[in-house]
Amino acid sequence: MILEPFPPALPYDFVFKLARDSHDLEGYHKLRREIFCEEQHVFETDDRDLFDESAMPIVCKSLIAGMEDTVVGVVRIDERSSGLWYGSRLGVSSGFRRLRHISPGVAVRNLQPCYAALGALGAGLIYKAVSTACALGCHEFLATVQQQNARFFQRLHWQPLENIMLHGLPHVLMRADLNHYAAAKKVA
Fold this sequence. Notes:
Oligomer: single chain
Strand order of the largest sheet: 1-2-3-4-5-7-6
CATH class: Alpha Beta
Largest sheet: 7 strands, mixed
Number of domains: 1
CATH superfamily: Gcn5-related N-acetyltransferase (GNAT)
Number of strands: 7
Distance between the termini: 52 Å
Protein name: MSMEG_0567/Sll0786 family nitrogen starvation N-acetyltransferase
InterPro entries: Acyl_CoA_acyltransferase, MSMEG_0567_GNAT
Helix content: 10-25%
Order of helices and strands: EHEEEHHEHEE
Mean pLDDT: 92
Shape: globular
Organism: Luteolibacter soli
Number of helices: 4
């Protein structure tokens, strides 16, 4: 009898939060390099830019037995003028992009809805980004989204504004419909 190897077990519990300590920030930058430099080849060795100086980094971390483990998703937000916020560098670790099962506790713990059918972690990061900005006085939230991801954002109540080229790739400038994003009850 031949035994097939089991697929790796994936956690199904997560926390979305601002990256504040050195461990979270290290995981945040490491995952950004993996996605935007090594996987997508958008940048050569590092994707940091001048927006990183003022941006608020947000991470999604897996939870194992209730304890924070690995950074599996990232996004950053920054205010470019009074009330005008931008989100950028959204990414989810490749092993977690098609995740369809998440703990019901994720919505309760993070005080935000969960969208398991829509790409749970990416949608959760988007919600955390916009709701955090709303709690900090956002009146308009924009993002430049890689063209292949624009439909995903539209399903999450974003409107396309214009097609642009950014870093040599087609992107879409999009605006979040803030009526669908409640201000975060806590900014953490």
